[in-house]
Amino acid sequence: MSELEDGKKFSEVVKTAKSLGYTEPDPRDDLGGMDVARKALILARLLGQRISMEDINVESLYPSELGPDVMSTKDFLESGVAQLDKSMEERVKAASLKGNVLRYFCEIGSAGCQVGIRELPKNSALGRLRGSDNVVEIYSRCYESSPLVIQGAGAGNDTTAAGVLADIFDLQDLFQKTA
């Protein structure tokens, strides 16, 4: 999202992210919010919430007429995603006029779970986010007014490989303890 502030077209940003391996094989999994929603579901359950995927409010960045049931990934990348350029440009400009930026956002709280685009102050931790990094802000009784912030690489081959390797080591530890 941060590259849109630099004047790049939404379709260019999506295609570049896909070519760098930052998106799912079909970028609509990311643009539709389902990749983030699946992760949010896991986190919410780890936090003790008894929710299902249907309980998560997800904002898709593309309309159903550009969905996988209507067009192939190839067609979406060649022509479909460009149909989103104008509306995204307008949203970026509207946010900028208020001193804000757009970020893809997930919130897990007592009121439920939401995934989608949100306007945020430019100087906030999420507003300063650039490229493929991710930020997690943790609010609690101890971190009520100033959240605990965790930031790091959120996409790419190295990041994914490191995550898979960590999962393999966790499984190895689990099997050694039960053997």
What is the helix tally? 6
Q: How many beta strands in the DSSP annotation?
A: 5
- CATH A-level architecture: 2-Layer Sandwich
* Number of structurally distinct domains: 1
Provide the CATH superfamily.
Dihydrodipicolinate Reductase, domain 2
In angstroms, what is the radius of gyration? 18 Å
* Helix content, binned percent: 25-40%
Structural class: alpha+beta
The CATH class: Alpha Beta
Assembly state here? single chain
Largest sheet: 3 strands, mixed
Q: On the 0-100 scale, what is the average pLDDT?
A: 86
General shape? globular
Residue ranges: pLDDT <50 for 5 or more in a row?
none
How far apart are the termini? 47 Å
N-to-C SSE string, H for helix and E for strand? HHHEHHEEEEH
CATH topology: Dihydrodipicolinate Reductase, domain 2
Describe the structure.
The structure is a single chain. The protein is of the alpha+beta class and 179 residues long. The protein has a single domain (2-154), classed as Dihydrodipicolinate Reductase, domain 2, CATH 3.30.360. It contains 6 helices and 5 strands. It has a 3-stranded mixed β-sheet. A two-stranded antiparallel sheet has the order 4-5. A hairpin with a 2-residue loop joins strand 2 and strand 3. The longest helix has 22 residues, at 157-178. The mean pLDDT is 86.
Topology:
Blueprint: H1 10-19, H2 28-31, H3 34-46, E1 56-58, H4 73-80, H5 85-97, E2 100-109, E3 112-121, E4 133-138, E5 148-153, H6 157-178
Parallel strand pairs: 1-3
Antiparallel strand pairs: 2-3, 4-5
